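Bit of a strange request maybe. I'm writing a small parser for structure token strings and I need a real example to test against, not something I typed by hand. Could someone generate the tokens for this chain?
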Amino acid sequence: MESRYDSEENRFNIELWEPKTEIGRRVKAHEITSIEQIFNEGKHIRETGVVDALLPNLKNEVIEIASVQRMTKNNRKAKFRVTAIVGDGNGHVGVGSGKEAEVKAAIDRAIRNAKENIIPIIFGCGSWQCMCGMPHSIPLIAKGKCSSVEVILKPAPRGLGVVASEPIKKMLELAGVKDLWSFSRGRTRAKYNALMATYRALRKAASMKNMAVMEAKEK
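Reply from user aminoacidic:
Good idea to test on real output. This should exercise your parser:
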């Protein structure tokens, strides 16, 4: 099931926000002004207020709502598992999941989890077929794996579009990627695993870029 869900958390007021973590306090004090700063410092986002404050135009997409059951001593407990993605279409994306007894609560939890997992994306033109130098794709080949699913992302020439399965395509479009080749293998019907493999590939690419920048500064 695929649908768009407008969370109540989008109506965020930074003045009324009371941060509970060090990162949150630094964001409210304007010491941190971007997600990139947090990512470069190797810190983890533990509260959604940080993302709401830094990325007010964030959009979310519910990719899957599934019913799951767990056996207890008394009987079976049924819950809903939701997979969601968030992104601003300008270089930031996150993936999350949540389980609750009610659909709305599961959606809220999945969106919160996705916001806490948000990462910056690096853009470039790494395709030998293009070499236009514009930031429309990714600058290098990236691989990610989650369970049995492995996803390989490759730079594509300008104007091609995003060549990927529907969930991965939606995620990349929310990230702001315009052109990309995507190859996947394994049990790709598991949408959460496919999205997490893509997420890890993008995170790995961003980490490699940061390492190159740090090495250049040291020299």
